[in-house]
TrEMBL record, chain A:
Regions crossing the membrane: 6-26, 38-55
Entry keywords, A to Z: Membrane, Transmembrane, Transmembrane helix
Protein name: Uncharacterized protein
UniProtKB/TrEMBL annotation, chain B:
Top-level taxon of the source organism: Bacteria
GO molecular function: zinc ion transmembrane transporter activity
Main location: membrane
Alphabetized UniProt keyword annotations: Membrane, Transmembrane, Transmembrane helix
Example of a GO cellular component annotation carried by this entry: membrane
Bilayer topology annotation: Multi-pass membrane protein
Protein location: Membrane
GO biological process: intracellular zinc ion homeostasis
InterPro entries: ZIP
The protein, known as: Zinc permease
């Protein structure tokens, strides 16, 4: 079973693609602006998540995996920074 | 009953993937109007095959396997056909008794509206199926989603063809088709929070959706196919009609393979 983080990444990615296509298809000004803002909000959330959780986790994972003495520090469950 | 957050997130991700598939018909916008006009009758024929195939190969057998009695399912299918007939009568009555089957300037034919209503209902049922299978087992949820996506792509293509024939502009057809596909989310949310009611409602919703598809294909779309009477249109439309049925049959085999894995 995939972790909730993987599902949330997938939802975010799907929302971005949907909003990009709908934004292209909508012609009226107001709905286009709303869709664009939604797109930027979702993108912002995803970038913030990447910068504050995903990237530090990857770096920590790399550091802990790089040295034998650190192996006991590495947790088996989902990593939270 | 407590539901794991990952189950809810998985079901929502699957529903969004199904909605995303409905946007696959966006390619129609890049076709030239002349090419599009030539392609639409074949897309309508494909829609007839897919809708009838979905009803007879997919929805009715599924309802029978859940309900058990063929006579009850057949009666509910007839109720669905009757309900859609009354609905179309109401739509036509609201639009000044419009019985013309060729769209005028900016006029939307009832067949397009009926198609949107039927598609919205079908997607709601898909949402119930996706969330129900995620509740049972996430792996089953994944296979169900793949099976739904497999039948969704050809069906959405056919639906857009029917909407174009009904008088919608290409952009509107793709967008309205997408808006209808979003009913997959309320269907999933309804199931996640009221799973027992949703499971029992499937015995009614599946045959009613099948009745709607049969009605739309037989009374709205097939007459459109009879407008052109030449050998090329006969062979092309018959091939597209047959391809729709074959696609639906192939999806049944695909589902059986997925379940066996």
């Amino acid at each position: 079973m995939a972790s909730i983080d993987s599902y949330l990444h997938l939802i975010g990615f799907e929302l971005l693609v949907i909003l990009a296509i709908v934004g292209y298809l909508v012609e009226a000004d107001l709905p286009k602006r709303v869709v664009s803002r939604l797109f930027i909000t979702v993108l912002g959330f995803m970038l913030a998540h990447f910068a504050t959780h995903a990237l530090p986790n990857q770096i920590a994972d790399f550091i802990y995996s790089s040295h034998h003495d650190y192996h006991s520090i590495k947790s088996a469950g989902p990593h939270r920074t | 009953m407590t539901i794991a957050l990952s189950t809810i997130a998985g079901a929502i991700a699957a529903c969004l993937a199904v909605s995303l598939c409905s946007l696959s018909s966006v390619f129609a916008l890049w076709l030239k109007p002349a090419v599009l006009n030539r392609v639409v009758p074949y897309l309508v024929a494909l829609a007839v095959g897919v809708l009838l195939g979905d009803a007879f190969i997919h929805l009715i057998p599924d309802a029978v396997s859940r309900h058990g009695t063929v006579s009850d399912v057949c009666l509910t299918v007839l109720v669905g056909v009757f309900g859609f007939f009354v609905l179309e009568k109401l739509v036509r009555w609201r639009h000044d008794h419009n019985v013309d089957i060729t769209p005028g300037s900016g006029e939307i034919l009832p067949l397009a509206k009926m198609n949107l209503i039927g598609d919205a209902m079908h997607n709601f049922v898909d949402g119930i199926l996706i969330a129900g299978s995620f509740l049972a087992d996430p792996a089953l949820g994944l296979t169900t989603t793949l099976a739904i996506i497999a039948h969704e792509v050809p069906q959405e293509l056919g639906d857009v063809g029917a909407l174009l024939r009904g008088g919608y502009a290409p952009r509107q057809a793709v967008l309205y088709n997408f808006y209808c596909s979003l009913t997959v989310l309320p269907g999933a949310i309804f199931t996640l929070f009221l799973s027992q009611i949703a499971e029992s409602s499937l015995t009614l919703l599946l045959p009613i959706a099948a009745g709607g598809f049969i009605y739309i294909a037989a009374s709205d779309l097939i007459p459109v196919l009879h407008e052109r009477c030449s050998f090329s249109s006969l062979s092309g439309q018959a091939a597209a009609f047959g391809m729709g049925i074959v696609l639906m049959q192939f999806i049944v085999f695909f589902e059986q393979v997925l379940i066996a894995i």
